[in-house]
Amino acid sequence: MAEAHQAVGFRPSLTSDGAEVELSAPVLQEIYLSGLRSWKRHLSRFWNDFLTGVFPASPLSWLFLFSAIQLAWFLQLDPSLGLMEKIKELLPDWGGQHHGLRGVLAAALFASCLWGALIFTLHVALRLLLSYHGWLLEPHGAMSSPTKTWLALVRIFSGRHPMLFSYQRSLPRQPVPSVQDTVRKYLESVRPVLSDEDFDWTAVLAQEFLRLQASLLQWYLRLKSWWASNYVSDWWEEFVYLRSRNPLMVNSNYYMMDFLYVTPTPLQAARAGNAVHALLLYRHRLNRQEIPPTLLMGMRPLCSAQYEKIFNTTRIPGVQKDYIRHLHDSQHVAVFHRGRFFRMGTHSRNSLLSPRALEQQFQRILDDPSPACPHEEHLAALTAAPRGTWAQVRTSLKTQAAEALEAVEGAAFFVSLDAEPAGLTREDPAASLDAYAHALLAGRGHDRWFDKSFTLIVFSNGKLGLSVEHSWADCPISGHMWEFTLATECFQLGYSTDGHCKGHPDPTLPQPQRLQWDLPDQIHSSISLALRGAKILSENVDCHVVPFSLFGKSFIRRCHLSSDSFIQIALQLAHFRDRGQFCLTYESAMTRLFLEGRTETVRSCTREACNFVRAMEDKEKTDPQCLALFRVAVDKHQALLKAAMSGQGVDRHLFALYIVSQFLHLQSPFLTQVHSEQWQLSTSQIPVQQMHLFDVHNYPDYVSSGGGFGPADDHGYGVSYIFMGDGMITFHISSKKSSTKTDSHRLGQHIEDALLDVASLFQAGQHFKRRFRGSGKENSRHRCGFLSRQTGVSKASMTSTNF
């Protein structure tokens, strides 16, 4: 989501003050260290690796095999074809009375060797099967005979009841694409946004790169792909995130919203108690690997590596580079309320506190009358400061207030009990939603600990939200956790009739511990400067939320189109109407089909999309002509999305080539130009991954309304969207107020009009001609008439404030 801003801003050779820093480590040494880090990760989770390493077999299968061999031996059959006799001869002779023991040991050793060989064979076969990506390239809704055969074989070799990390050893490694193909695709992607002169110059640079440097850089990448788990992901994390010196707030974090229309209880402490209990239940399931792995088509597993750092994780600032600190366990949360910090235990005698006991502890914090200490109230603004500044201040803070700092950084996660309400209101629904989004993204600049993996935000009226730090994982991971949390705290844990958590309080629990910060005088000015910078950054962000209820995924599905591609092409139309020109567009796609894969960029502004947009703005073009161009644009977008998912994208390969060139001190004008591009439209879809947790038919309002992120460019937009059930799409739009070129509300209106115009193509193609084209209110009302008949939504609701 927020990664586009980081991808644009990364400069591997610059410090925070702009001074040059040489990446002097030899590239072979860096590749060696990448592989070493991969092996260390495997060793650090030995037991999990043992359980998952034998999958799709199980430890019980060894016992079954050993018993079968013993039974055969008892029946005077030798399934080993003489191998067990040879093993017995190699075992020490303990005397005649231990002759039977030698036979048992020989059988055990033979069973272990045979069991290991079978497991290895299954792993190799499954990895080879999972390397097949032909199913991605097939037309939507169609399945060829090879793909059906492949699915059957995957089902045979996949085993039953996999745990979260069961498939990790069987996932293929992300392939290094052909550098010629990558450069060709890149040139194709920039052609719509460059003038003829600029494109010709870029093509010359590309040919020079292919001729002089590409083969050497590609060789190093192939070497790394053979040695390390993933040829790009660790460098992506380091250079795009951890080496970035920009503030985390707005630039790197993103937010997740609560239910849009429903708040299960107005009691702040009760909502916090249930939510924290649900989150820790998720952590318990995560530790026991009881969360099933995500499967595409119900069969193709995705990498689960990013789940490891959801909890007990903090991004620690460094002068030149941050690092991620992850603890094995933590039995407390850090709580912020009215400028004060608390350490609140979540377990008693190693068992998780009940929701009602957690509510009691939160209520004690809310009722605590003690005031904040001087400068304590604004201390967290330091986590919203430039990373180098925060790193220097943290060194002093660690000396003076080590215990309090450790209580925050060592917490399972951070909880902010806001003193203000948030969420949708009847009085001013549009403004209230925008304020809600802004509060989650930036808050007041000093009431979130942005270093933590995530902050749970509980507003005074019981509304929830999540602020997530981006470096440790991508949005689908935190989204999966958030879906579980909302469904569990609302449907499984529930609330009593008076709004409290179910159960009984525990008066024997100790009071939450108030953290004491001994802040030296030299830190006071740093806090004030950080707060001033955070407020400037926060006040400059324009957030707008658009719940589009005229149609949703079901309508798009009836058109036999990909819902994501439908939205992406509509966004191109909306952005062109907003800015009058095309721009590079960043859409995040996952590469978790591969081991430790993260994301790839889909460059959605294609020549086909531009042709469609021009046709829509050309009054001489007919509806059938526009519809034909729209389908071509959708097909092109689908091809790019599938290529990105299968490891054949453009940007991660060029990024890795650029990093290698920096290590080798090779100057490449082509790669330098590639990584100086600005993404003026950054987009991302928030997937709904666990629809079985929500009953969208009987309770359509109980669905998460997604989340958003800051713009990637000072003169650009950040747009995320989520399909809420079958009949609604929620858009989250952000931009900078300081820019005279952008306006989040204006783009929101263009998005609504563009969706209606695109939908009208299909209606006109089936029943009637489109009478109007454009984005005026008269046309919108006209389109509302026939779309309401299609979707069952009243015309009045469609022409009101989007609700």
List keywords for this structure.
803 residues; alpha+beta; Chloramphenicol Acetyltransferase; 3 domains; 8-stranded mixed sheet; transmembrane
Write up what this structure looks like.
The chain has 803 residues and is of the alpha+beta class. It has three domains: 45-168, no CATH class; 244-295 and 304-541, Choline/Carnitine o-acyltransferase, domain 2 (Chloramphenicol Acetyltransferase, 2-Layer Sandwich), CATH 3.30.559.70; 549-646 and 678-775, Chloramphenicol acetyltransferase-like domain (Chloramphenicol Acetyltransferase). Helix content is 47%, strand content 11%. The chain has an eight-stranded mixed beta sheet, sandwiched between helices. A six-stranded mixed beta sheet has the order 14-20-19-17-15-16, with helices on both faces. A two-stranded antiparallel ribbon has the order 2-3. Helix 6 packs antiparallel against helix 7 and helix 25 packs across helix 26. The longest helix is centred in the first third of the chain and has 32 residues, at 99-130. The chain is globular, with a radius of gyration of 28 Å. It is found in: Cell projection, Axon; Cell projection, Dendrite; Endoplasmic reticulum membrane.
